Amino acid sequence: MSDEGLSLSVVTINRNNALGLRHTIESVIGQQSCRSEWIFVDGSSDDDSVSVARALSTSLAATIMSEPDSGIYDAMNKGLRAATGDVVLFLNSGDSLTRPDVLVSATQRLTSTGASWGYGGVRYLDSLRQPRAAYLFAPFRLAHLAHGYRTVPHQAAYLRRELLVSLGGFRTDFGIAADQELLYRAALVEEPEAWVDLMADFEAGGLGSARRPWSFPLDMRHARADAHSPEGTERVAELVATLGVAALQTALTWQSRARSSVRAQGAGLRR
């Protein structure tokens, strides 16, 4: 292994989000020195995203492309095909890194252990980009991901490129759960290191936020079936487990919304 450690490709996809893109590029520029490249995949934006990318990325080893695509995971696959680093991070437009040593820390961890991949936690930002909550999935439990009970945040997931290529990248037929389906397949090859470290920020209200609470467990049942087709009583048990997780996720979501509503009403009364 090179004394310089692992090289890194940061892939950013974007469509009509020039403001969010600025935050992403600035956070990449602000990273401590490591062998890295930045790959920008734009979906033929109508705003000034491409101009922003070109203007702000002059200090980076950047690849910039803008062309129509078939959705976010098609764009992410384009970024993967363009990547040359040993490790790939998908940090999309509007996402940012929490501190200047995140990239160095991730590559050093993978270099020292030889792991194929690892991930950290994320912070949720409000509309003013202030942290409002955090999410960690540690220790990693394959069953929790497989049944849609927990997710691995792709903004904080660092995978060796050879692993991603061997898996064929993202399945564009899998909808908004394609990132988790890919990470599930990666975990079947080798379970990841789970780092207790908040490594990325992203704004709440993105694509994943539009997912209905019961849909992710159903998506992951599809992923499990593709990896291993259950039969007979095993199929029934799989369905029962999936419906149980879906019901739990729905209940937790409504409970969280109810608490938020009560807090908002309380704040209104205090005013």
UniProtKB/TrEMBL annotation:
Occurrences of domain Glycosyltransferase 2-like (ranges): 9-114
SUPFAM superfamilies: Nucleotide-diphospho-sugar transferases
MF terms in GO: glycosyltransferase activity
Protein transport in keyword set: no
UniProt xrefs under Pfam families: Glycos_transf_2 (PF00535)
Protein keywords: Cell membrane, Glycosyltransferase, Membrane, Transferase
Keyword presence, Membrane: yes
Main localization category: membrane
GO annotations of cellular component type: plasma membrane
Subcellular location: Cell membrane
Name of this chain's protein: Unannotated protein
